[in-house]
Amino acid sequence: MTVAFDAPEDPGAVTLAHLDAVIERGQLSAFEAAPLVRPAGPLTSWVGQGSGCADVSRATWSGRAAPHVETAALPARWAGGGVSAERWAAFPPLLRHYPGSLPELLAEVSAAHPDARNTRDARHGLTA
What we know:
This protein is 56% helix and 3% strand. It has helices at 16-24, 30-33, 40-48, 52-56, 65-79, 85-95, 102-112, 116-123; strands at residues 3-4, 14-15. It has a two-stranded parallel ribbon with strand order 1-2. It is globular, with a radius of gyration of 16 Å.
């Protein structure tokens, strides 16, 4: 689903306020909703704004806090035990204009920049 910051920006899109309401009502969890948001930029940018500080102090399941928590958790899960500096460097420039969801972006960055450590481990028969 396409998500916009607010209605004037894109009258036909779901807004972040709509997303909050859907989560608050229990129609979708943030875990289910965050990977559906396209483009990835509005959700991740909104989460990073200073106004989010008050939101994350609320219950993590609330409609305002849950997207912050889940959007931060997606890259954390992607990083797992660590991500190469090359991957981290490739991630932010793509985020602003990437048309797909955050999980799609993370997968694309991973494919474009294979982690040297994982490649080396795979050659030696090691798995993470």
